[in-house]
Write a structure and sequence with these properties.
The complex is a heterodimer of chains A (about 260) and B (about 280). Chain A has about 260 residues and is mainly alpha-helical. Chain A has 11 helices and no strands. Chain A has a domain at about 65-230 and about 245-255: MetI-like fold. Chain A has helices spanning about 5-35, 50-55, 60-90, 95-110, 110-125, 130-155, 160-170, 175-200, 205-210, 220-225, 230-255. The longest helix of chain A has about 35 residues, at about 60-90. Chain B has about 280 residues and is mainly α. Chain B contains 14 helices and no strands. In chain B, helix 6 packs across helix 8 (about 145-170). The chains are: A mainly alpha (about 260), B mainly alpha (about 280). Chains A and B meet through helix 1, helix 3, helix 4, helix 5 and helix 6 of A and helix 2, helix 4, helix 5, helix 6 and helix 7 of B.
Chain lengths: ~260, ~280
């Protein structure tokens, strides 16, 4: 065997191992969630939907409802705000553009534990702590960097000559935006909305600090259960969360910019 | 006056709500929390003094740096061949490989940590399979120690290394390698003297990103690490949520943030192509 061949085989083996390393743990969780046994044993003794039925418990359904109540407004708000910010930052020669961009991206750069502690200290005097509104505000802020970057990169693809043509033919700025600019960035806006949904739905650390007994998203509920007795209900819930993210990825590939899979 | 009006165009107002929200509901809370490091319980540097002098805090900070650095090294060793293979592949194969790396990337951190709990427990999947196959007689200790923590953290951080590195690798011009080979260099020499140096910006960007994000890890060390592997984020959480003090956790946050900011500056110096990676 030539040395080049050995290296190639070795590289292939590493890639295969990494692929298994990435996929097998989550696959095992999905398999265990259909277990007919009482424990998290693998391979499961038989097939059953009992752990999915166990999810139909007020503790889980109410927290799932909270997650949905938070994620949809947060994704809508962050996408609208991100779109506005992206349109503002598009202009060349905007004073302080790097600073503004830095401020808007900062929620992504600051470690979430610091963000969580900061919200905890400020939201309580404001009456936002432990409320759905507080969670929406927190998640919107966390989603804005994703919305801004996704929409900015789709704005970069717009052919501005068409917008200029529309304006020179007498269309008002808003008409130009609605009929020309927006249709060409709509896939970026959809991607931004879908990414924000996933970011909000999966968020746990900041939510832990913001949530209370009346407003507890499903990830926080899951966190407190994992630290106690772990039963296959958590595996069922984890599978639901995983399939949700996968579904959004798929939707993004079809209706969005396909950015999640197209680096 | 007319100049000012011209400077502020109509479309500029569209961004104002986002900026106001982030300033009011993010920047202000973070700054006022960090300010507590020098104002709580009274004005002065006492919180930084206690962090510097108390051996518990020093140990946690050291843990954080050591765990993050080790994670970064393992991630780089595993991620480089993968990024290289993705960069050399094309069409459907490349898309498939990117997809495989992205699935865990978009899966909730909590779900992935939970999946490692199931696998690594004393009676978990890995131990039962190894025991059944007769390779071991007693369960391996894979959880609540650094072994488990590294196994999980490296998996979670791999996408953060692979994507920035892949971005750089896919732009390396093949002509350099052909020239090197034509001049008589062996494949190994070509890789080591030509390709590897060209990939350096990607290595720096990717591993710095992995290191920085590892510094702030909370969920994974809390669920998989042992008591002796406490990281700084866990200490901040414990102080704020359980004990209810503000000064020391704020001081720890300032230290964590300064470390993060310093490394981001290094990345920015080393390469301009980090934003795409930092985004995800």
């Amino acid at each position: 065997m030539k040395p080049g061949c050995i290296w190639r085989t070795l590289r292939g083996a590493v890639c295969l191992l990494v692929a298994l390393y990435m996929l097998v743990p989550i696959a095992i969780v999905v398999v265990i969630s259909f277990s007919s046994g009482q424990f998290l044993s693998f391979p499961p003794p038989g097939f059953s939907l009992q752990w999915y039925r166990a999810l139909n418990d007020p503790a889980w359904t109410s927290s799932l409802a909270t997650s949905v109540e938070v994620m949809i407004p947060a994704a809508l708000l962050s996408t609208c705000l991100g779109l506005g910010a992206a349109l503002m930052l598009r202009r060349e020669g905007l004073p302080g553009a790097p600073l503004i961009r830095g401020i808007l991206l900062s929620p992504l750069v600051i470690p979430v534990i610091i963000t969580g502690a900061a919200f905890y200290s400020v939201f309580r005097p404001l009456g936002l702590h432990g409320t759905v509104l507080g969670l929406i505000v927190a998640h919107t802020v966390l989603c804005i960097p994703y919305a801004l970057t996704t929409i900015t990169s789709s704005l970069a693809m717009v052919d501005w000559r068409i917008a200029q043509a529309s304006a020179s033919l007498g269309a008002r700025p808003f008409t130009t935006f609605r009929r020309v600019t927006f249709p060409s960035i709509s896939s970026g806006v959809i991607s931004s909305f879908l990414f924000s949904l996933v970011v909000s739905f999966d968020e746990v650390v900041v939510s832990m600090f913001v949530s209370g007994p009346d407003a507890r998203p499903v990830t926080v509920q899951m966190w407190s259960n994992i630290r106690g007795d772990v039963d296959p209900t958590i595996a069922a819930l984890a599978s639901v969360l995983f399939v949700f993210a996968l579904l959004i990825l798929l939707l993004e590939a079809i209706f969005g910019r396909g950015e999640a899979t197209e680096q | 006056m007319a100049a000012v009006v011209r400077l502020v165009r109509r479309s500029d107002w569209l961004g104002v709500p986002a900026v106001l929200l982030v300033l009011g509901m993010f920047a202000w809370p973070v700054v006022s929390f960090l300010a507590k490091s020098v104002t709580d319980p009274h004005v002065g540097l006492q919180n930084f003094v206690s962090v510097a002098t108390d051996s518990v805090y020093a140990k946690v900070l050291l843990n954080t740096v050591v765990i993050s650095a080790t994670t970064t090294i393992f991630t780089l060793l595993l991620g480089y061949p993968v990024a290289y293979t993705i960069a050399r592949a094309s069409g459907r194969r490349r898309r498939l490989m990117i997809f495989v790396v992205l699935i865990p990337f978009w899966t909730s951190l909590l779900v992935r940590t939970f999946s490692w709990m199931i696998l690594l427990q004393p009676h978990g999947v890995i131990n039962s399979l190894l025991l059944a196959s007769g390779l071991i007689e007693h369960p391996l200790e894979l959880i609540f120690n650094r072994t488990g923590l590294f196994i999980a953290m490296v998996q979670m951080q791999l996408p953060f290394l692979i994507f920035p590195l892949f971005n750089v690798l896919s732009k390396i011009d093949d002509a350099y390698m052909r020239a090197s080979a034509n001049l008589g260099a062996s494949p190994f020499t070509t890789f080591w003297r030509v390709y590897f140096p060209l990939s350096m910006p990607g290595i720096v960007a990717g591993s710095m990103l992995v290191f920085v994000t590892s510094l702030g890890y909370f969920v994974t060390p809390a669920l998989l690490g042992g008591l002796r592997d406490m990281m700084v984020a866990q200490l901040i959480d414990e102080q704020v949520a359980d004990i209810g003090t503000w000064g020391v956790p704020a001081a720890l946050s300032v230290i964590l943030l300064c470390g993060t900011a310093m490394i981001f500056l290094i990345i920015k110096r080393a390469t301009g192509a980090t934003r795409k990676g930092a985004r995800r």
